Amino acid sequence: MKLKELESCLQQVDVFEEPKLLLEQYPTSPHIAACMLYTIHNTFDDIENKLIADLGCGCGVLSIGAAMLDAGLCVGFDIDEDALATFKMNAEEFELKNIDMVQCDVCQLELAAYDKKFDTVIMNPPFGTKHNTGMDMQFLRMALNMARTSVYSLHKTSTREHIQKKAVDWKVKMEVVAELRYDLPASYKFHKKKSVDIEVDFIRFSIT
Question: In what residue span(s) does the Methyltransferase small domain sit (predicted)?
Answer without folding.
Answer: 43-141
